[in-house]
Design brief:
It is built from twelve helices and two strands. By secondary structure, the chain is mainly alpha-helical. A two-stranded antiparallel ribbon has the order 1-2. The longest helix is centred in the first third of the chain and has 52 residues. 33% of the residues are buried.
């Protein structure tokens, strides 16, 4: 090998060693920087945790901001505001979870009044409980509800009777106080409970079921109740048969004319004082 060749090989070897040394130095430096950086991050985390432990207000503020950010991200992704508690406000139950007797009534009412079986199931179950407390037949309660509102929880008559059982909210404001106020009239279960209480009082005052229904509809001093009590009793009988397991035909009931609309034709006027004590017939 010539001298020039030896010199070239020696130069290449030195360059290779220098490159390896440079690479090793870079790697070592990167390791030290990374190690120190992680150490700083760890220290920062420990300090932050200590600060949050010592300052609960800071922790709560941080959690609130994080939750707000997550909610905003979720709203942006969904295109609507989520509410996981909505299910708790729904008046609904699975009819399959009801006793056989109640389930039969719920399905029959669902078909007849063209409403979903789940909310009807919740009302049927509540009617059974309320009836037990008030010593009233639950099928009577459901019959009043059917004739009064057709199971529309937002129904309102021309005289201000509201909700499922068409209770005169402005008259029975005191009964709604324990439920948070008069707007609870549009909560189906609350309206049912208040309506049952009013119905119970009317029957006790009148001394009989038929007379109590006349009081309930505001016809205590009228010669006729416009057929209201007969409609309720007829529906009551059908529901009793359904509850007993009999096959009862389903048909859509005709609309009901409010009693106070019929009053002039009946030749008498409802007593205003009496009307202020009872519920009124449903919508216009």
């Amino acid at each position: 090998m010539t001298a020039s060749g030896k010199v070239a090989r020696a130069t290449q070897a030195k360059a290779a060693r220098a490159l390896r040394t440079f690479a090793a130095d870079v790697a070592q430096g990167f390791f030290e920087i990374t190690h120190n950086g992680l150490a700083l991050v760890g220290v920062a985390v420990v300090v932050a945790l200590a600060a949050l432990t010592a300052r609960p207000d800071l922790r709560q503020a941080g959690e609130s901001q994080l939750m707000s950010w997550l909610q905003e991200r979720q709203i942006a992704a969904l295109g609507m505001v989520p509410d996981l508690d909505a299910i708790d406000r729904a008046t609904a139950a699975n009819p399959k979870d009801l006793p056989k007797q109640q389930a039969a009534v719920a399905y029959w009412l669902s078909r007849k009044y063209r409403v979903a079986p789940e909310p009807i199931s919740a009302l049927v179950a509540e009617a059974w409980q309320a009836g037990s407390r008030a010593k009233l037949d639950p099928t009577l309660i459901l019959a009043v509800m059917a004739v009064e509102s057709g199971f529309n929880p937002f129904a309102q008559s021309s005289v201000g009777a509201q909700g499922l059982m068409q209770v005169m909210t402005r008259v029975h404001t005191d009964k709604y106080e324990v439920f948070g106020g008069k707007l609870a009239a549009f909560d189906p279960v609350t309206n049912l409970r208040v309506g049952v209480k009013v119905l119970q009082e009317c029957i006790q005052r009148a001394g009989s079921l038929q007379a109590g229904l006349k009081f309930y509809v505001g016809a205590a001093h009228l010669p006729d109740d416009g057929g209201y009590a007969d409609k309720v009793m007829a529906e009551h009988l059908r529901l009793q048969q359904v509850a007993a397991g009999r096959a009862v035909p389903v048909f859509t009931p005709p609309p009901i004319t409010p009693l106070r609309t019929l009053a002039p034709a009946l030749g008498a006027r409802p007593d205003p004082a009496e009307a202020e004590k009872v519920a009124a017939l449903s919508g216009p």
